[in-house]
Amino acid sequence: MIQPLLQRKLSPGEEEKHERMSRSRNRNRRRRSRQSGKRPAAIEPPKLVQSAPEFRHFLAYLSGQPWLALDTESDSLFRYTPRVCLIQVTVPDTTPDETWSGNPADVVDFLIDPLRVNDLTGLGGILGDDRSEVILHAAENDMLILQRDFGFKIRRLYDTQLGARILGRKGVGLANVLQEEFGVVSDKRMQRTNWGQRPLTSKQLTYAQIDTHYLPALRQRQISALKEDGRWEEAQDAFQMLETIRYREPEPRTVWHMKQIRAVDEKDLGVLQAVWEWRESASQQLDRPPFKVLGESVLVALAQRRPQTLASLESIPQLGGWQIERFGRELLAAVQKGELQDPPRRPSPVRKAEALRTAAGRRQFDQLRRWRTETATERGVDPDIVFSNDTLLRIAACQPASVDDLLEIPTVSPWKAQAYGQALLRVLESDRKR
Fold first, then answer.
1. Which of 102, 186, 259, 369 is the most buried (most CB within 10 A)?
2. How confident is the model at residue 77 (pLDDT cuts 50, 70, 90)?
């Protein structure tokens, strides 16, 4: 009988091979550990902006610059209501009259601390002034949280992630791009660090600095490639559409947002509602994300098992001893409250998009998606770079008969209307003749 690999004795040759592989893995692990979290030698330390005088100096340096790279860090993993805890800005190390070299080293990196600098109005004025281009990577999230926290709106932007996607690149997360383009290893562990704590560690500062330091050079490389591929106008059009994004208050959180609610029987929904409401209240009081107070699986188990004593709470999976000690009596009270109340009313089903309410509309939407997939494959890009599903639904619902009609749809940009309009109209016309 052949022995399992972990039980049989390795031959001398296998032992030598296993030892070589182990040494190689250890060397790679040590190299990655040395590389991540370290500032490359060519990069000067960032300038920290932690006071009103330092912020005024920063604004003076920023004034008149042709571009700036921007990023933010928030504490969404550590607070019930997240906030922007750090703003990274990179600008050229030149006077406004000089031409930037394109060398990643010829920049100045600033880290602005909004937890210590109370008035950031001057930065908002620069971001909203189209004389300076604002470079971001995956711009949408940063744009929305800057609007949410400070009311800042960006008038002229360049999104290096979107630029990479229009070029048909894969693996367009910033860490992958930095390693591929510049050989820089970013410490991904810092993504989950607490940016609201002070003082920030040296690893946090390095990670934050690198997030914007290379964006200007990346933008310059992308522009050359976009022009060479004949996609520069498309990219500019896409960036202009991004500028129209506006922050909207999210819908109020309810128990129906739970991912695991489908696993809960109707008879247990009253208890689930009660323990869920308790978690929301406790999370707000503690200013912690709800999942760090109690996980969803714990809420479901409480609703299904309905414990009546502190001892019975110990049988709930993933409910720790410290949680029982701190919250136990409140949880038992919430369970008892839930047993006495009616189950919550289920929300009305989401109405289907107009285009999907008829068989003809569904058929037409499917034809538009097939056309989009073929077009995207031919161009070497992801399908949503051509059109999103939402836009295809709007096209199917509006039934445009001309390119001008297409332009009446808010999510159809001028470039896309001209580039794809006639092909789209032929798909629609072909369907009408069926």
1. 186
2. very high
Task: Tell me the pTM.
Answer: 0.87
Residue 374 CA to residue 372 CA, distance in Å, equals 5
2 sits in the region (left: phi over 0; alpha: psi -120 to 50; else beta) called: beta
Residue 98 has pLDDT above 80, yes or no: yes
CB-based contacts of 380-385 (< 8 A; 24+ apart in sequence): 380/168, 381/165, 381/166, 381/168, 382/165, 385/165, 385/166
State the angle between helix axes of 174-182 and 215-228 in degrees (0 to 180), rounded to the nearest 10: 80
| pLDDT of amino acid 27 | 53
Q: Which of 340, 362, 391 is the last residue of a domain?
A: 340
What 3-state class would DSSP assign to 73? strand
- Sign of the torsion formed by the C-alpha atoms of 155, 160, 161 and 163: positive
Mean pLDDT of 153-181: 96
Nearest to 379 by CA among 78, 168, 196, 232: 168
Q: How many CB atoms lie within 10 A of CB 162?
A: 23
**225 and 333 within one domain:** no
- Asked whether residue 109 is domain-assigned, the answer is yes
Give the whole-angstrom CA distance, residue 155 versus residue 67: 12
Determine the longest span between alpha carbons in the chain, in angstroms. Answer: 79
Q: Are 212 and 101 in contact (CB under 8 A)?
A: no
DSSP letter for each residue of 85-115? EEEEEEEESS-TTSPP---TTSEEEEEE-TT
Sign of CA dihedral 235, 237, 243, 247: negative
> Within a domain: residue 27?
no
pLDDT, one tens digit per residue, over 191-231 is: 999 999 999 999 999 999 999 999 999 999 999 999 999 99
pLDDT for 30 beyond 80: no
Residue 254 has pLDDT above 80, yes or no: yes
Q: How far apart are CA 172 and CA 338, in angstroms?
A: 47
Residue 340: in which H helix or E strand, if any? helix 321-340
The CATH number that applies at residue 164 is: 3.30.420.10
pLDDT at 286 over 50: yes
Supply the pLDDT for residue 360. 83
Answer with the one of 215, 242, 269 that is the final residue of a domain. Answer: 242
